[in-house]
Amino acid sequence: MSQNNFQPDPAGAKKFKQLQQKLRDRWLSTDSFDPQPREILVVPSLSLDQRELQKIKGVYHYEERLLFALIRLRNPRTRLIYVTSQPLHPSIIDYYLELLPGIPSSHARNRLRLFSTYDASQKPLTQKILERPRLVERIRQSLNIEHAYMTCYNSTELEKRLSLELNIPLLAVDPDLLYWGTKSGSRQIFADCGLPHPDGSQLVHNRHDLAAVSAELWERQPHLQRLVIKLNEGFSGEGNALLKLGPLADVAPGKVSHQERTKRLHKHLLSLQFQCMTEQWESFEQKIHTLGAIAEAFIEGDEKRSPSVQGRVTPLGEVEILSTHDQVLGGPDNQVFLGCSFPADGAYRLEIQEMGRRVGKQLAARGALERFGVDFIAVKQFKATWDLQAIEINLRKGGTTHPFMALKLLTDGRYNPDDGLFYTPQQQVKYYQASDNLQKEAYRGLLPSDLMDIIVAKRLHFNSIAGTGAAFHLMGCLSEYGKLGMTAIGNSLEEAEEIYQKVTQALDEACGELDPLENFESAPLEC
User: What is the pTM of this model?
Assistant: First the structure.
């Protein structure tokens, strides 16, 4: 069974829209105390290209990243169901429940139900659930559908079908609108918003057409040194490849005909520099045929950053900005997402926030719902100004979602869009550095309890009184893959970075590592 087996039908589409309308009465922001009865089904399925996901070490543990959704259990009449491919270790659940402020962990635990498919195969979790009608029925029986809704990592026809089978609304974008989160759809939104974005091509589906549109782009921008070839539905930068134009100087614009330039580019595509180290032209070309690709101008610059803004369209149709980040990028050409720091630099924080709001309004006008992210490239100009170019839209949760959820869970604070900062109830400003990619071979074999022993001994765990320290995720990944996620929270960005480094050093010392300052570089992918 594959995701493509689930074809939408007119009756189902109508019912789905009717279900989503019920979110107006069933959803309330986590910023508000909610005394009403709520039933929330969390399905943290990564319903993305499974071939691409297998490049991530321990990817099935990424279902743990939405465990910060347990923040909803601080509301005394909320019940939550969390489904995973494999059972979660009890110590991991205990860890999250003990982080909940203002409510006994036992009270929250009584309102949490865990289900598992007991299936570690390379399929989206939602597909595994749908393949088990008895599990679907048990989930249905556990829900009061008059108060329930479902949330997920990203929305596809799989999640839509599960929503319909359970007869509960899905707090996510309608899969019919996912085009606006593709590379070509993002470019159209940016144009409609009037946002600056790199020159690029239309969507193509074969090598010949890709060479032709690349030639046209080069002819429009003769100064270009490189092009970026992007799969239309790639994520985390792993669907990108760089095409260097230097070796083609003899067919540069003005020297030969368009036909000759296209011919040489057609051959030169075999020399693409892939951001995923295991990618090869043969498999990449197959993805061009199935997903489509665009050519885009590569933005050069001596000092570049990759900020992003996250927002949501609420069930009431309102656009809210949730956070901004400076992303930490790696890979051969700094195209791959590795981690982030919050908030984005004050030099452009409010500017990208306003751009994100304009994108959100365009998405809302098209009927989109829930989370969206907008990525930018910022290039340092004269007089310390930054040139901002919008790069892509993500219509899903992403690598910056769960660190921000961790901050909210731990501090009970709020994001202030007036200055782009996060304040606790005591008006203390908070910052963090986060990653899913704290990974070393030496960490293999560490159990979650070992992690706590190491961190508590160094007094680096999050301290609710001081409001600083480290919170962890992906702990199920640690023993097998030596991989861990962390959000280091401080009263300044420098303090957050210091806590991050101290945690890394503590783990290195406990595991006999000799390089205590290595952090992001050892892991290849985040989504």
Answer: 0.90
